[in-house]
Design a protein that fits this description.
The protein is an alpha/beta fold. It contains 16 helices and 17 strands. The strands form 4 sheets. The chain has a 7-stranded mixed β-sheet, sandwiched between helices. Strands 1-2-3-15 form a 4-stranded mixed β-sheet.
């Protein structure tokens, strides 16, 4: 799948890239950007559908979608036209004002989330900002007696200070301690541990229905039902982080909807919501929760701007009108079934097009590099775990090209780490 050419040929933007190679751009990158991401794997210059091209003209099937962001792939014509039209009409107005796209997207999210009367939406620019808003919501549910916030081992909720307090990985947390206090991490998917931890001192339980960064680990239906029952019993908020698992990613609009009767008090969204344009949201369920934060207690300059909310509307409309939920379920099931039959794959998890699979050795990072060389973008979430989160428009035929290449990719990875 590697088709070599010049950067100008690859992206049609010669005025920007000229004949600069990927190596040229990476040299400039290291001199201009902070090193928080390490060295980028490639310099990407163009995308179309599920395919991207790098500065050296190489072609890749994108099976990560910007980490579950590009729900409709790259350069989707409808989303592109809507964003361009909105930006040419009204780009930014601040939240001293509102816009038709902001109101319409909020209404659409409340409809798709089956939210009861009195529910509301607060728009942000990212998932981490949505979690910050959720943290403040939890604090507004606090009293001197009810002050603890529970999260799970393996959780990833973002890298801002409040979101980081909810995140469990020590390597992310320790360099920035002390973090906002009051957060405790309890065992993953352990109903007995949840029942032991839950009492009247808990203000909120914050959980991901599917832990993406931990290797695509779904919570069991039993755990989600227990979480809903116990939080309701003790007056705590159930806050679901659907930043990665939401917006049709699992074959449901939101992953928790697979479990009948589980309706959260609040839900965070981002990633796929804007189809590649930055937009996030906190959805609050019911009048009591929606009025916990009052005027002046939270805000944002850019959140909910006309362009971002237009992108969200265009993305949701396209997913809804194209029958995306069934397509995602079908292609995801095909991928998981075939992955389970690949030699060297020991387990497969996930739902829809959020998939994790474990290998028979610690060569997942080497597999990522071997996949790149073969023309595929995938992600390692751990030494032996691969994550797939492709555009939701991925076809069976495209998935099959990866599945056919995977045995050779894994062989190359094993040899590289032997």
């Amino acid at each position: 799948m590697n088709h070599t050419g010049t950067a100008t040929t690859a992206n049609g933007a010669g005025a920007l890239t000229g004949d600069a190679s990927g190596a040229d751009w990476l040299a400039r990158y290291s001199g201009a950007l902070m090193g928080v991401f390490g060295t980028p794997q490639r310099v990407l210059v163009r995308g179309a559908g599920c395919t991207v091209w790098d500065a050296d003209g190489n072609e890749y099937l994108d099976l990560l979608a910007g980490i579950a962001v590009n729900a409709l792939g790259h350069a989707h014509p409808f989303v592109t036209s809507v964003v361009s039209s909105q930006l040419a009409t009204l780009g930014h107005i601040s939240n001293f004002f509102t816009s038709p796209t902001q109101v319409a997207l909020a209404e659409k999210l409340l409809e798709l989330s089956r939210a009861p009367a009195g529910s509301r939406v607060f728009f942000t620019n990212s998932g981490a900002e949505a979690l910050e808003a959720a943290m403040k919501l939890a604090r507004r549910n606090s009293t001197p007696e009810r002050h603890r916030i529970l999260a799970l081992d393996g959780a990833f909720h973002g890298r801002t200070m409040g979101a980081l307090a909810l995140t469990s990985k020590k390597a992310y947390r320790e360099p920035f301690e002390p973090l906002p206090g009051g957060v405790e991490h309890i065992p993953f998917d352990d109903v007995d541990a949840l029942r032991t931890a839950m009492d009247g001192s808990v203000a909120a339980l914050v959980i991901e229905p599917v832990q993406g960064e931990a290797g695509v680990r779904p919570l069991s239906p039993e755990y989600l039902r227990a979480a809903r029952a116990l939080t309701r019993e003790h007056g705590a908020l159930l806050i679901l982080d659907e930043v990665q698992s939401g917006v049709a990613r699992t074959g449901r609009w939101f992953a928790h909807q697979a479990v009948e009767g589980v309706v959260p008090d609040a839900m965070t969204l981002a990633k796929g919501l804007g189809g590649g344009f930055p937009v996030g949201a906190l959805v609050t369920f019911g009048e009591d929760v929606s009025t916990l934060i009052s005027a002046g207690q939270h805000g944002t300059t850019f959140g909910g701007n006309p362009v971002a909310t237009a992108a969200g509307l265009a993305t949701l409309h396209t997913l809804e009108s194209s029958g995306a939920l069934q397509h995602v379920a079908d292609v995801g099931g095909y991928l998981r079934e075939r992955l389970a039959a690949v030699q060297g794959v020991t387990s497969v998890r996930g739902a829809g097009l959020l998939i994790g699979f474990d290998l028979d050795g610690d060569h997942a990072p080497a597999a990522v590099q071997a996949a790149l060389a073969a023309g595929f973008i995938i992600n390692a979430t751990g030494p032996a775990t691969i994550r797939l989160a492709p555009p939701l428009i991925l076809t069976r035929e495209q998935a099959a090209t990866f599945l056919d290449a995977l045995p050779s990719i894994l062989t190359t990875a094993r040899e590289a780490t032997a």
